[in-house]
Amino acid sequence: MDKIDIIKLLEAVKNNEIEIDTAAKEIEDLPFKDLGFAVIDNHRQIRTGYPEVIYCEGKTVEQVKNIVEFMLTKDSNILATRASEEMFKAVKEICDDANYNKLGRTITIRKNALEPTESYIAIVSAGTSDLPVVEEAAETAMILGNRVEKIVDVGVAGIHRLFARLEVIRGAKVVIVIAGMEGALASVIGGLVDKPVIAVPTSIGYGANFGGFAALLSMLNSCANGISVVNIDNGFGAAYNASMINQL
Amino acid sequence: MDKIDIIKLLEAVKNNEIEIDTAAKEIEDLPFKDLGFAVIDNHRQIRTGYPEVIYCEGKTVEQVKNIVEFMLTKDSNILATRASEEMFKAVKEICDDANYNKLGRTITIRKNALEPTESYIAIVSAGTSDLPVVEEAAETAMILGNRVEKIVDVGVAGIHRLFARLEVIRGAKVVIVIAGMEGALASVIGGLVDKPVIAVPTSIGYGANFGGFAALLSMLNSCANGISVVNIDNGFGAAYNASMINQL
Amino acid sequence: MDKIDIIKLLEAVKNNEIEIDTAAKEIEDLPFKDLGFAVIDNHRQIRTGYPEVIYCEGKTVEQVKNIVEFMLTKDSNILATRASEEMFKAVKEICDDANYNKLGRTITIRKNALEPTESYIAIVSAGTSDLPVVEEAAETAMILGNRVEKIVDVGVAGIHRLFARLEVIRGAKVVIVIAGMEGALASVIGGLVDKPVIAVPTSIGYGANFGGFAALLSMLNSCANGISVVNIDNGFGAAYNASMINQL
Amino acid sequence: MDKIDIIKLLEAVKNNEIEIDTAAKEIEDLPFKDLGFAVIDNHRQIRTGYPEVIYCEGKTVEQVKNIVEFMLTKDSNILATRASEEMFKAVKEICDDANYNKLGRTITIRKNALEPTESYIAIVSAGTSDLPVVEEAAETAMILGNRVEKIVDVGVAGIHRLFARLEVIRGAKVVIVIAGMEGALASVIGGLVDKPVIAVPTSIGYGANFGGFAALLSMLNSCANGISVVNIDNGFGAAYNASMINQL
Amino acid sequence: MDKIDIIKLLEAVKNNEIEIDTAAKEIEDLPFKDLGFAVIDNHRQIRTGYPEVIYCEGKTVEQVKNIVEFMLTKDSNILATRASEEMFKAVKEICDDANYNKLGRTITIRKNALEPTESYIAIVSAGTSDLPVVEEAAETAMILGNRVEKIVDVGVAGIHRLFARLEVIRGAKVVIVIAGMEGALASVIGGLVDKPVIAVPTSIGYGANFGGFAALLSMLNSCANGISVVNIDNGFGAAYNASMINQL
Amino acid sequence: MDKIDIIKLLEAVKNNEIEIDTAAKEIEDLPFKDLGFAVIDNHRQIRTGYPEVIYCEGKTVEQVKNIVEFMLTKDSNILATRASEEMFKAVKEICDDANYNKLGRTITIRKNALEPTESYIAIVSAGTSDLPVVEEAAETAMILGNRVEKIVDVGVAGIHRLFARLEVIRGAKVVIVIAGMEGALASVIGGLVDKPVIAVPTSIGYGANFGGFAALLSMLNSCANGISVVNIDNGFGAAYNASMINQL
Amino acid sequence: MDKIDIIKLLEAVKNNEIEIDTAAKEIEDLPFKDLGFAVIDNHRQIRTGYPEVIYCEGKTVEQVKNIVEFMLTKDSNILATRASEEMFKAVKEICDDANYNKLGRTITIRKNALEPTESYIAIVSAGTSDLPVVEEAAETAMILGNRVEKIVDVGVAGIHRLFARLEVIRGAKVVIVIAGMEGALASVIGGLVDKPVIAVPTSIGYGANFGGFAALLSMLNSCANGISVVNIDNGFGAAYNASMINQL
Amino acid sequence: MDKIDIIKLLEAVKNNEIEIDTAAKEIEDLPFKDLGFAVIDNHRQIRTGYPEVIYCEGKTVEQVKNIVEFMLTKDSNILATRASEEMFKAVKEICDDANYNKLGRTITIRKNALEPTESYIAIVSAGTSDLPVVEEAAETAMILGNRVEKIVDVGVAGIHRLFARLEVIRGAKVVIVIAGMEGALASVIGGLVDKPVIAVPTSIGYGANFGGFAALLSMLNSCANGISVVNIDNGFGAAYNASMINQL
Fold first, then answer.
1. What's the rounded Cα separation, in Å, for the pair D138 and D117?
2. CB contact under 8 A, E184 and D182
């Protein structure tokens, strides 16, 4: 809401087209409109098909179902992350269009088909065990309207696998690197591409990875430039961030 | 080096325009050229004025001086981070154009004036004590050719200061948020802008910030979307990353 | 027990109104009475309806039931925290008035209806997943005789939700802020109200929150003034503390 | 700014008493006024003599001096914490009324004499080595207008020393407990008083206290009720919090 | 085995009372006998009824049963710690005299009744939830031949409970203090008795006790003298140590 | 691929024995062939019977089965670590020769019988509870073609057991030491042998071993020379490393 | 003070031998006398020559000097730990009998010559770098009246050195083991003696000992029985504890 | 000493060729001789020129000088690590042949020239700041008689530098990889060579490397096979280990 809206309102007041009380009420609401993010958020959502997102961890099946039910009354896409199969079944009952990615543990409901971007996000991962995070990231990126290329199982233990796929990685506008254990893949890719790299440590590995802490520290300390890091196993966060960059 | 170059080389062999031995040598070199990054890196540097970067921590004054001396023979800009005043004095002896940012502890030498980008990087910080990291980030961003807007001392303890500067923050193409203590500023800004946010935890604070670990964890766990994180006090890394995004 | 009581006792001895042996016994008991806390505790409990509290974690169903059984012989209210449904069933068998808050995992038994305080404790939380801690805090605060206002789901990722409820938060005599992930809500509220804020980190979040450690450190390092912190997920402790302040 | 102000403004518009443009400008400013904290903060400061606070850690002598210089133009008291002697000397040059507490490392400038509160804050500490934190807390509490009672060197290793001072501790409206090593003093006092206890862990101790982390964890895990905790060595934070409670 | 034994053996060789081969074999065994601990251990065990100890954690039911079966062929008492009920049932099948302490998770088999020591070990604990460790310690101390006095539920949150039992604690030759949460009980008792105190941190408590780490650090940093610490929840280790001291 | 191959190719071009396009394609592939490791890896595998290795943690039963199925088409041995019994059953269905080590959780399939080395790897462990790691290491070492000697249950608490087996340990070409709790066995053996020692910390122990972290730190800090360390519980990694050394 | 004293007092009141006011005063003081530790402490000190102890860390030279000055007015021995040479010089000025152990950083003043105990404390250490802690422990043990035997530089890297000194270690009544790095010496000695072992981790070692944390964890997790642990580098605490045991 | 020696001794006793007392003395000495390591150690040292090693950290200049002085009376080479320049000066006074490596902080004294091995140890490092550890490793490896090849400044940020040097790395018998920050170099090299890799994390890097902990964890969690790890900055330990392998 900008100055023009305010002036229009004031003119309406002056011209007796609107009750002072009504106008006062509307102005009292201004702070939130004026801060604007709600409005913008809503606009962007309608315009771009931005989804509503539900983080299911720590919520009950009932709560998730109710939130989806409410969201369905609005005309936006829906993404639920960390969703159990049980949650999906509950959602499916009220929305037949719901899809479940079992590995990625995401529920997606598409009400507005989005034309994917021409530029793409490369999602690169080190090993088979990282696939759940890859899937969460991919589902997120796609429902946000991005073209996605997945390059999986190219860990540095066999670096030739990585070089064979290097061209597609370097062609991306932004790269997500997902790796557990020591997370060295992020540094290696960071040294090979000149695009922003978003690194996602995963909780995969033997004892002293401490639930992904080893990979997290490794990625934060990367000697390669252009790497930033999100939380452990946070495929959603990486994809959200990558989507912002890809759609700049 | 692409396929066309190879075919040209083979035709030259076929036409006896080149010795088989010479051609063999050239092809043997292919892997590195073909991987290409060295070449590309060099090209990009010449084309864009990308600086050579020296990380001075753990190096002697002598080593820093020697590296700069060698770089001066090449025609690129130079950025030295974590440089002591003593290092600057040694560099100044061999290059009168060297500048020192005392707070940011950077040495910069500009051989190629760069036209700054139209879009800008917003560098936002919480408190006065975070200024050294702000300066390192700003110097880095500028020598990489970016327009920079600094918005300092807008920590969440007095959130109205932040709102007063919100417009300039939201106008940026990418935002760097620098904060110590609990680093909450990153989350608050992440919730207010729809641009990528790169968060830099700083080592500023009372006892239990554990050298910036508190702010680091805080930023990694941000409930706001679109935030990625770099290492503690790593203003350089944030700016390098932001520059990549700003110049996409 | 003050000097006057002692002098009265000695006069009774002198006047043969009391046996020396009896008096000796009474004096031998003095240290504990003189320290006084037991007495005071008891008095306060009777006077104010202060509950007996049972921390059920690590206790067997049998033990909890037995402790409640014993307490029922006294005339005080009872609060059991971290109670499983199985424990509640066992308690229900011996006390039909027992209530169970499933989310908050509390059992409450009210023998003395308390007039709630006029001033109130605001319990503010960031997300739906924090509700169990909210409920534990609310049940505790209410059985301690406080008026409570709950303001939930106002995390900083959408800061306008917080501003919409700011008035009710600022009206409280003391504020409890419950947040997981990066816990930034505590700092933001700390900067907006001028009442004591008690922050409760919760164990909600992705990998690197380390069971609430991230939020804990964040809150301890808050740049806002007037914030103190209790243990992770300790809704009870926060409410007990808030009740003390609210009833000063 | 409440609804009445808005209605008045609108009536002025309707009655042509004010230009639409001017009114629009005024309404556009509403968010900050409406949030109100700046105004309130200022009012409170003038009314109660609340000091401006400077946290000197990580600031240069020059910066501290400049901030003080600016503050002196306003009519409020000033408190600088973590200030070095060198900083004090610089401040002394521009303000002869400045006082320095060498142990507590605080600079205080009193422009408005405050009548201390009748109720008092008890500041209790375990050992001689905790005195710097005691002094920081005391200076803070006093310049915030509170009566303070210090009870030092009453660590639990010789618990009789504590009992000898128990009466004065129990007479306080709020108690600050400052202890390093294992920080057990907080729990013991928490079990003996029925007033809110704010615990401050200090970084004093042998190897495995890890810079105060041992005491911090100890206090957070206290089995006594009514204890909340601030950051390691944060005497200022504890006193600020205690002052809020003492002046409720 | 001392020099005299060797000389006797050599004289037997010289006098042809023993075969050279036999003697060579016996001497070849010397290193172990000479180190002596095996012999001494065996002797002590027979003389004092010292038990064989089995640490069941990480062993299968089958393995535990087999070890006990083998031990039963020797004439010593048996103690199994961290034993599940399933393990006990398996042992019971082959030894009807086996006893199970469900809370302490110990299996004990007494073949040699021991006259308990006159002096006693005091086992003091803070709360009901610490009882499993108390029981493990008590069973261990008793089968090692010690008189034991248990003083439970005397945590510092209600320090008067502790003072009421102080006499029996101070009468012990050595004191074991078992406490979770912040473990302050160890410091308080350490300040009240002049006997060696062995502190056992337990893993009981809210979030930030980190599985007993808080209590462990607290006890290691105790400001009281005369306290040493064993591993978290290690009731067995504390009792073994206490038994050594009690039987000096 | 060496220079000779390139020259041959060029000669074929010159002699029109090969199309320029085909040659160009082949040269374009050079980087990977030239890096050579894939080729070498394959050769070594066929030549030495090196197994394909599958790390099953975090994979589904289906995934493991599919990977094995694919590998069976190649003529190499197969080793699967961290395999559940369910996984083994699935593998058994498609390969009757598969063997399962229940304790070590390994599946092995031998297609090429290997003559074990003459020199051997000694695998030494401290306690019964370390056996799973011992078995994983032994299975790995054996399928890699090594002779193995196991020396178990020789922890330092009864150091005479270790001395009785010292000769066989000192006869090895390389020693693997597997120990939990404080991991002191590695240091003691490191001081007694003059062969490389690979230490494996295990996650066995009471509370403060923090999932093997205590043993890990202990081994990394060993005062004995010649010790290097692998990840917690990583029997596979130790054996792989030992095999490399044993077969030098 | 026991019941008999109280009865005597009451009889004196009854017989008018004492004023009621005086008696009331005396009874009012009872709590502290009745707790008794102060009295006992004083008595023990006079009787046994127990020293007053000053922990100098975090104290100023001035404070240390003043405390010693006050103590000199009493007739007890004095021990100051963690004392700098500067502190010693200040103390020397007011007490010519003061001695300084430079390595152990202790100041000792002996007013009452103590006959050392017949039984002795063995102080065993791993390396030369641990000597400062050895000296602190030895000075403490001696001024507490114990006979001490030092066995230094017998780390497990060369275990034969240890065996050569085993007899003197086994002859002790209690053993202190001081070791840095991985602290394995404690476990080895624990397995070889049947006396209580008090382990002191030291902060000596390469990077990942984390200021003694590695040795601390190692000792807490010792697989040998009979070991308890004190804080890192806390030679004083170990000796105090050992003295208690040695003088039982 | 084997059985044959014992039988010979007994026969000598039987034949009166030796006094019983003398024989008894000889047998009494058996344990240590039989354990044998002292003898073997001495022999190896004389035969191979193995150096005596002094770890100077935590030792005084005086102590280092004295130890060297004593060692000079024996005929072996000497290596002192972590030696300050001041220590070197003191050593130089008593031994003119002493050499100092300023970067590596080692003192070496060569009394027995060793023919270096034909096979070599490759010492690979990531950056200039890792050079001190490289030098310590190289000095150690060389005085232990090994041929050494250094390949420095080949960190993964510019992976082409590494490929250019790959041949010399792959030609080694054993590889030492030294890297700070995220230590990814170890994984990359581990995936490219089929020789044992010993990884040394260094303490170089920005904030969240926590003194080398990040690189340490990274290396322990390496997804590449054949990597084992030594302590942070422990160039000596890596080289000692590598020497053992190189000389197998």
1. 14
2. yes
CB contact D221 to E (< 8 Å): yes
- Name the nearest CA neighbour of B83 among B123, B39, B132: B132
Parallel, antiparallel or unpaired: strands H106-109 and H78-81: antiparallel
| In contact, C59 and G38? CB cutoff 8 Å | no
pTM of the model as a whole: 0.84
Q: How do residues H31-48 score in pLDDT, each as one tens digit?
A: 444 443 433 344 444 445
ipTM comes to: 0.82
Q: Which chain F residues have a beta carbon less than 8 Å from that of G188?
A: 156, 159, 184, 188
Task: List domains and CATH numbers for chain H.
Answer: 3-8+17-109 (no CATH), 120-246 (3.40.50.1970)
Taking CB atoms and an 8 Å cutoff, what residues of chain H touch A188?
A: 156, 159, 184, 188
From the number of C-beta atoms within 10 Å of its C-beta (0-12, 13-18, 19+), residue B133 rates as buried
Q: What are phi and psi of H178, to 5 degrees?
A: -115, 120
Token pair of C224 as six digits? 């806002």
Query: Residues of E with CB below 8 A from H23's CB?
Result: 10
Residue F78's beta-bridge partner residues? F52, F109
User: CA torsion sign, A30 to A32 to A37 to A42?
Assistant: negative
**Distance in angstroms (rounded) separating the CA atoms of residues E142 and E240:** 10
CA–CA dist D80, D96 (Å, integer): 15
Nearest-CA distance E89 → chain D (Å): 37
> Are the C-beta atoms of C108 and C98 separated by less than 8 Å?
yes
User: pLDDT digit of tens for each residue in chain G (248 aa)?
Assistant: 445 666 777 888 888 888 887 877 666 555 444 443 433 344 444 445 567 788 888 788 998 999 899 888 877 789 999 999 999 999 999 999 999 999 999 999 998 777 888 999 999 998 888 999 999 999 999 999 999 999 988 887 777 778 878 889 999 999 999 999 888 899 999 988 889 999 999 998 777 778 889 999 999 998 888 999 999 999 999 999 999 999 98
Which among E159, E218, E225 has the least Cβ separation from residue D214?
A: E218
Phi then psi for residue D146, to 5 deg, are -105, 150
The secondary structure of chain B, three-state, reads: CCHHHHHHHHHHHHCCCCCHHHHHHHHHCHHHHHHCHHHHHHHHHHHHCCCEEEECCCCCHHHHHHHHHHHHCCCCCEEEECCCHHHHHHHHHHCCCCEEECCCCEEEECCCCCCCCCCEEEEEECCHHHHHHHHHHHHHHHHCCCEEEEECCCCHHHHHHHHHCHHHHHCCCEEEEEECCCCHHHHHHHHHCCCCEEEEECCCCCHHHHHHHHHHHHHHCCCCCCEEECCCCCHHHHHHHHHHHHCC
Q: F38 touching A, CB under 8 A?
A: yes
Any CB–CB contact under 8 A between C31 and chain A?
A: no
What's the gap in Å between the CA of A46 and the closest CA on chain F? Answer: 39
Residue E208 in contact with partner chain G when CB distance is under 8 A: no
Is the minimum CB–CB distance between F215 and chain H shorter than 8 Å? no
Q: How far is CA G108 from CA E223, F210, G136, G244, in A?
A: 21, 40, 11, 19
**Cα angle: A108, vertex A112, A118; to 5 degrees:** 90
Comparing CA positions, the residue from B107, C208, D2 lying closest to residue A234 is C208
Of G155, G157, G182, the CB nearest to F218: G182
Strands B106-109 and B78-81, bridge-based pairing: antiparallel
Q: Do A38 and C160 touch (CB under 8 A)?
A: yes
Q: From CA C142, how far away is CA C145, in angstroms rounded?
A: 5
3-state secondary structure of F132: helix
Contact list, A209 vs chain F (CB under 8 Å): 231
